[in-house]
Amino acid sequence: MRPHLPDEDVERLREQMRACLEARGGEVSARARAAALGRAYLALDETGRQRFLQVLVEDFGVDDGAVDSAVEALRAAEGREARYAAQAQLRNALEAPRVRLLTQFNALPDGIKFLVDLRAELMALSRQDPAFRPIENDLKGLLTAWFDVDLLELKQITWDSATGVLLEKLIAYEAVHAIRGWDDLKNRLAMDRRCFAYFHPRMADEPLIFVEVALVNGLADNVQKLLDEKAPVQDPQAADTAIFYSISNAQRGLAGISFGNFLIKRVVDQLAQEFKGLKTFATLSPIPGFRTWLDQALAEGAPGLIQANERKVLNAAAGKSHGAKGTLKTLINRGNWHSEEQLRDALKGPLTRLCAHYLLNEKGRGGRARDPVAHFHLTNGARMERLNWLADTSAAGIERSAGMMINYLYKLGEIDNNHEAYTGSGEIAASSTTKSLAKG
Amino acid sequence: MRPHLPDEDVERLREQMRACLEARGGEVSARARAAALGRAYLALDETGRQRFLQVLVEDFGVDDGAVDSAVEALRAAEGREARYAAQAQLRNALEAPRVRLLTQFNALPDGIKFLVDLRAELMALSRQDPAFRPIENDLKGLLTAWFDVDLLELKQITWDSATGVLLEKLIAYEAVHAIRGWDDLKNRLAMDRRCFAYFHPRMADEPLIFVEVALVNGLADNVQKLLDEKAPVQDPQAADTAIFYSISNAQRGLAGISFGNFLIKRVVDQLAQEFKGLKTFATLSPIPGFRTWLDQALAEGAPGLIQANERKVLNAAAGKSHGAKGTLKTLINRGNWHSEEQLRDALKGPLTRLCAHYLLNEKGRGGRARDPVAHFHLTNGARMERLNWLADTSAAGIERSAGMMINYLYKLGEIDNNHEAYTGSGEIAASSTTKSLAKG
Amino acid sequence: MRPHLPDEDVERLREQMRACLEARGGEVSARARAAALGRAYLALDETGRQRFLQVLVEDFGVDDGAVDSAVEALRAAEGREARYAAQAQLRNALEAPRVRLLTQFNALPDGIKFLVDLRAELMALSRQDPAFRPIENDLKGLLTAWFDVDLLELKQITWDSATGVLLEKLIAYEAVHAIRGWDDLKNRLAMDRRCFAYFHPRMADEPLIFVEVALVNGLADNVQKLLDEKAPVQDPQAADTAIFYSISNAQRGLAGISFGNFLIKRVVDQLAQEFKGLKTFATLSPIPGFRTWLDQALAEGAPGLIQANERKVLNAAAGKSHGAKGTLKTLINRGNWHSEEQLRDALKGPLTRLCAHYLLNEKGRGGRARDPVAHFHLTNGARMERLNWLADTSAAGIERSAGMMINYLYKLGEIDNNHEAYTGSGEIAASSTTKSLAKG
Amino acid sequence: MRPHLPDEDVERLREQMRACLEARGGEVSARARAAALGRAYLALDETGRQRFLQVLVEDFGVDDGAVDSAVEALRAAEGREARYAAQAQLRNALEAPRVRLLTQFNALPDGIKFLVDLRAELMALSRQDPAFRPIENDLKGLLTAWFDVDLLELKQITWDSATGVLLEKLIAYEAVHAIRGWDDLKNRLAMDRRCFAYFHPRMADEPLIFVEVALVNGLADNVQKLLDEKAPVQDPQAADTAIFYSISNAQRGLAGISFGNFLIKRVVDQLAQEFKGLKTFATLSPIPGFRTWLDQALAEGAPGLIQANERKVLNAAAGKSHGAKGTLKTLINRGNWHSEEQLRDALKGPLTRLCAHYLLNEKGRGGRARDPVAHFHLTNGARMERLNWLADTSAAGIERSAGMMINYLYKLGEIDNNHEAYTGSGEIAASSTTKSLAKG
Known about the structure:
- The structure is a homotetramer of 440-residue chains.
- The first copy, chain A, contains 20 helices and 7 strands.
- By secondary structure, chain A is α+β, with helices and mostly antiparallel strands.
- Chain A folds into 3 domains: 7-61 and 96-146, Malonyl-CoA decarboxylase, oligemerization domain (Butyryl-CoA Dehydrogenase, subunit A, domain 3), CATH 1.20.140.90; 150-283, Aminopeptidase; 290-439, Malonyl-CoA decarboxylase, catalytic domain (Aminopeptidase), CATH 3.40.630.
- In chain A, α12 links the parallel β4 (241-249) and β5.
- The model of chain A has no long low-confidence stretch (mean pLDDT 94).
- The interface between A and B is large, with 54 and 54 residues.
């Protein structure tokens, strides 16, 4: 087939798909044919791929007529068994024929990775054209079954056991604090660090999600210190705190099939087993939505956002350092405010108060916490423990959260109640310090 | 919970199941709770287990009202997207809530094996009470996804690499020619033998299905010779024929989720790769239904079953050896007919003819071959190649097929056509010798 | 070469050995040639092998002339460096050229196993003809280096991880309490049992020595009970005592290269780590030399062997049960004395006293304990803890030690002192009960 | 013990060494004590280590008196057996007691690596003080036995299977063409490359020696092209030539225990097996001694070194490019002669001629080829095939061999004869082109 899949090729393609679905020559032959189709797909260009998927959307979707008949049959069914049989019939009618073909793609050497990547493509397409949503959803259903968390393997990743292939994937997939090279990576796998990932047995070198942990003393309050390659390695047996400082989803195609919750809790269990001295399990997390929210609020000029005394302090600081009148808006948009001591000190009060407020009170859709990382940890039953000023002074850290980070605390006895309170009534667990900070 | 699960315990059980389904305290807690339920189930007696499952049947099945509403919504939906959303809604309504709980049982240490065994129990219960069919079917759906053939591992089993645990399972699961002990087993894993099995990655020591192969010269015609522990080991590089002499499904709970077809063909590929001298791939198979059919036909006195000349020969042979009048019916029911030369010779003609007829012409439900082993290999695209007289003189062999066995031939170029002809129009591929044998 | 290696073949053989030693064509070619020689050796019959080895003995031994010259050179050497160089020269002259060829046999696929087995053959030959001693000793030197205990791997053997090949070797090599089949073997690998072995990295499926341990409560006093396949499996976490009930050397060719001492102590360490409840580490050991010694003593009519009161009791018991006069000699030679209650009771006193005496007081060569198992454990620093009456009522147990067994106790704080006392002055560590038993 | 090991500590040390050698408390205790000594050694500073080793040199060496007595006993011995016993006695007397202690260091967790590194230290010390030679030699004897080539494992190293620990060691140990980082390393492990190493089973992550191979078409003539990370990956199945472009010994402490010869030939065998299209096995090797030799010859003003016509050409080229008179000496010492076309062209003639002459005719000690890499490959039986101009234009390449490299050809049928001719009479195998090049 030609890369852009012209019409004649589409015709042949449709015929081959049909052969797969009818299992001509038997199921073994059908799988071989499906694998050939999969290889053909990989050789297509963007247009070609979209046309390939369109065939699946249009010609191999649910047959509305069959659904209607099955609905009629169900209405007519009398008695428990007849009703059950009719339901089964209807269930079948509601499953698109293409689901079978998608399953057959497993016959490719890396079939399951192929399907995970295909879903990532379908998700992108769906955002442009809702016609792709049903097939995207079909595929999500399959992946949800195959990636059931208890069918996966939780493995520790170490410098001694991980292969080159896997290690370079960690570098590629790290989504929170970019890994700057092999030395940085090796440092994150040192004796006082831990890295764990979930793997699917048929995708051996592909982490699905991974977490990086530092074994330290006391709640960590600065990510640059944590990642300092020159800092001496600590004795992990002497640590009292495990800090989860990075969690990265590695496969876009598995979005919405969540393992993060399991990953954190199983790693907590495993670490608690290995290191008897650990008393505290917490994160050092980014607050990715703070500046976006703040900028919008400042733009809208929300009344009462800044308190009078804060305003005074800011003005004074601005005057001292630059001889100009300063508002939060102007000051925070100076690129290097955090490296000027007076400015920094003046901003600390209002910014920490506003950030605590943002985390505790600002809501997104469905009453959930507006900050996505907050929502994730709150759903897991964690508590907002401590807001850390100047905790991430990298360019990204300043940009997304004015350099602040927060510790979410995972406290064994509280997790279930916190989860219930948050998912039930939206109640957010937080330390009293955090709460009073929000009040100013 | 008490072993027989009295009413009060059922009440508590129902409450715990609800907690799992609502994921109280979060999904991690729900899984832990499901695992506890699974362990409780394993501790129940037969009555207790049945009551446990009944709760799932009655309280956690499809909600008919929800289905009806979803059906109404679907009828009311207008436009492609609305229709699709309504279909998705209906699909959800048709999935019983217990499916979620069944999935959560994966959290048990051997969760997937637990579910496979649970299905075996549900299949037995369904045969007695159709109310268990829907849940049996729910579980079959899950297992079908998880045991997709391309998510499994095909492994060779050898005396050098298989563990004690796995080896004793081969002995336990062999279903065609019982393994008489460790020496017999070791002989079946000798240098001129091969054994392959499919495994699920989360059920490492449990074969799902396994096949035993002998590397020989020419089509094998006697299974006792094949299994003779004293026969010298042959050089496998000199063999021209691979004989598949035993295929055993090892997990009752995976009935209807077929791997046999794949197993044979993938093993053919692998052997062809390893041994360049192999020209022929065939089975030496039992004919399990022959005597049952024959006895019934003889009882019904089907006219023309025995030909006149055969009748004469049988009579003569009976006379010579026992001084009595002999019919096929009386002669074949003498326990040791096959050890008396004259009787044996007289029976050979009619029995081989009738057996070829049975294989080629007798039909079961849906027009398929009446013999189940024949149906399996014909569906795979194999050809009936040669009927072998006195090929299995064990008690079981005499009892089920009057000692006959048949070679099914897997010929690469023919397989797809044979499959299509058989599954399409019921046409059976057979050698001309077999066909003429059936005619007498 | 022909199996019995006639003279002409010997000539060719000698030439090929020379080619190996001169490394003609380079060391890689020489090794290939040595491997061919090794394969030729394996194809020889007994006569042929002896002639093969004789060539090595006669033509490739130490060159006396070269030794004499080197000795002269050493006497003439003046100054430290010259002396050292001369010593090095002499050391070379004292190493037989065949040592190089023996080393080259490592090039065989199972070269190191070949050499271990070759040593077993050479040990047998040496016993008949001392001319083989030097080469046997050369080989022992090589094996001593290669089988240094810290180059070996200590592995646990379990039913879940050991292969068929390894398991059948355990059955073949068990030297103390014969393994009666696969069920017996499986029972010895049950949850409340442990089996450990040393392995050489290039002899992966060949245990060098292995020990079997039972995790029980209190000192075990009966081996039949320990090995009872029907006895329920105990919870190993609840055990307070580890009983080492069998230690078998698996390779005759490694005689004199001892690992037993290391094996016991490393297994003690490992078990102490795994099972915190273990307080006692002891053996349940045979007393293989007791009856041989006793029979000889009785034959020699050693005065005072039997005490007067014992004599009376024996006589009485003999009378009661058989109406005949009984001495220890006659009674103990009745095959089934241990199944007759009165006889058994009468024999208990004198036999336990004599056995304790034998263990504590009878000496072998060099002042060591006469009983070889006693010598082994005493050298390891263990203490004679308790003599057990009717502890092994198998035919072998009755025959070698009148059914008695003994517990040797390994007590961490005592081991070094016990070892020093025994190896220094022959002093035997024993419990007071054992000592008083010996006194009668 | 204090880092610099003052006199009192030396006294204690001596006592502890004695305890090890006498195996006080048994061999298990002795090994534990030896391991403690090994850990103490690692904690010492340079002075301390030297003093530690001096104790071994002075107090635990060969006892000259014992040697003299054994010599006397040997002279007095009459008869074959007595003589043999006396030889054995003498052999024992010639083995220094410290050999036992060195062996016991194996009890350290990485004992064998400890000993390899210790030998590297002893080699350095021996060069300063010959008193360390005997102990260095003792250790070499032990390592020679333990690192017998057939007790090692040959493993392929791939990006998919090698761990971070191993990969960074390749970077550290590469001795011929420095690996510039992880991308360079990954490129050397690409599909058209191979890397093999020998490993000792008890030093799992430590390569002993490794070779890097490129699968190409035709003899490679430029190492920069070979290592170009941007060059497209070739299909290895289409390659006709395997180029061994780097061989690095990774353990200084194993100097003189040679595996290089085996490594090359076993890798040739393995590649020939895997890639049926390979016809040629050759190296692309540095000529490390050329410039040193040349500079010396130029300094000595060896008459006839430069031919008259060459002199003229050089002069002319120098004039054209710099307006100055040029000799080989002045021209070659201009840092960038190879980037000036005319100069380069003028130098090509004399430099290639002189280099061929150097390789073929210049001799080192014992008549061997003066160039060490040449000596290595000639000893292995390879042939000088082709000299390559501007084959390594890195700074190092220009510096050591004026940018030239040579292909040594490993031709199966020739290897043994080449080896014999070279090691016997110093005859060098070379292509006729190389030979005539040397003549000019």
